[in-house]
Amino acid sequence: MKVLSIDRSKEWTVEDFQQLEESVTPCELINGELVMSPAPTSLHQIVVGNLYYHLRTWSIKAGGLVLMSPIALYIDNKNVFQPDVLYVSEQNEKIITERGVEGIPDLIVEVISPSNIFTDRNRKKNRYLSIGVPEFWIVDPGNKTLEVYTPETGGETPKIYLAEEGQVTSSVLTGLEFDLQILFHRRNRL
């Protein structure tokens, strides 16, 4: 069995990151720091799967591609994130390359877990908004909430905040609409 060790004495770059072997441990490069996370919880994966299903169903009619983690999103030489779900419109599909996504997706979604709350709510959210991601969602399975952020509204106050119920819509994904509660179902009651 191979043990993964991280050299924390240096600032990592995309080139260093690409030298890592594939691992079952999710890794991201955040501001030159290699960040590892434990495997997601079952609830996290259920929510990601439900969200992917609804976005994918919508995208079949609208066009574009929905991708889910693990997928590398190359932001710059010091940042490679793995968002839980992202959407790239047909007109932007050229940003999807062999190594991952190399450009700004139309929508990024992070589903938070106890191990990544600070990173997703702060470091990653601020970076996504600073590079101009048109819409960024934070889904919190523990509190059954969805927050929608845009560069115009900034990272402090969400444009949309839903708690436990309500219709999920998007200013970027025209015509997308589904009930928030559906994201948190543990069984296929879609």
CATH first level: Alpha Beta
The CATH level-2 architecture is identified as: Alpha-Beta Complex
For the secondary structure, the number of strands is 12
From the N-terminal CA to the C-terminal CA, the straight-line distance is: 41 Å
Beta-strand share of residues: 25-35%
The strand order across the widest sheet is 3-6-7-8-9-10
Report what the structure shows:
Helix content is 21%, strand content 26%. The model is unreliable at 1-5 (pLDDT under 50). The chain has a single domain (39-184), classed as tt1808, chain A (Alpha-Beta Complex). The strands form 4 sheets. The chain has a 6-stranded mixed β-sheet, sandwiched between helices. Strands 1-2 form a two-stranded antiparallel sheet. The chain has a two-stranded antiparallel sheet with strand order 4-5. The chain contains 3 helices and 12 strands; from the N terminus they run H-E-E-H-E-E-E-E-E-H-E-E-E-E-E.
Helix-strand blueprint:
Layout lengths: L13 H5 L8 E4 L2 E4 L5 H21 L2 E4 L4 E4 L2 E3 L3 E4 L18 E5 L5 H14 L4 E6 L4 E5 L10 E4 L3 E3 L7 E3 L11
Parallel strand pairs: 7-8
Antiparallel strand pairs: 1-2, 3-6, 4-5, 6-7, 8-9, 9-10, 11-12
Summarize it.
With 190 residues, the chain is an alpha+beta fold. The chain has helices spanning 14-18, 42-62, 117-130, and strands at residues 27-30, 33-36, 65-68, 73-76, 79-81, 85-88, 107-111, 135-140, 145-149, 160-163, 167-169, 177-179.
Features:
single chain, 190 residues, alpha+beta, tt1808, chain A, six-stranded mixed β-sheet, two-stranded antiparallel sheet, 3 helices, 12 strands, globular, disordered N terminus
